[in-house]
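ok so i was messing around last nite and threw this chain in just to see what happens. nothing serious, just curious
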Amino acid sequence: MMKNDFTKYVLALETHNAGDIAFIKSLLDAEGIIYFIQGENVSPYLFNALSMRVMVDKDQAEEVKIILKDIKLSYSYNIEEDSNNNE
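result:
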């Protein structure tokens, strides 16, 4: 059975703003974080109807939470904020 590499990624953040994505990518690149942006190439063509999702290596997820914790973005959905509201 072939292992699916996508299972090692977790959602860190969602946004509809390409400027936010550029900023987040620069932060993650500077820290050597392994990530990909789901929907980055599709969202602009659909008038931003779909969000762009920052997917990070699950082994680095805690580090990413610390990196992104205090930044203020124009429009985003932080998965950590939602999980705190459900507890």
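not much to say yet. The longest helix spans residues 18-30.
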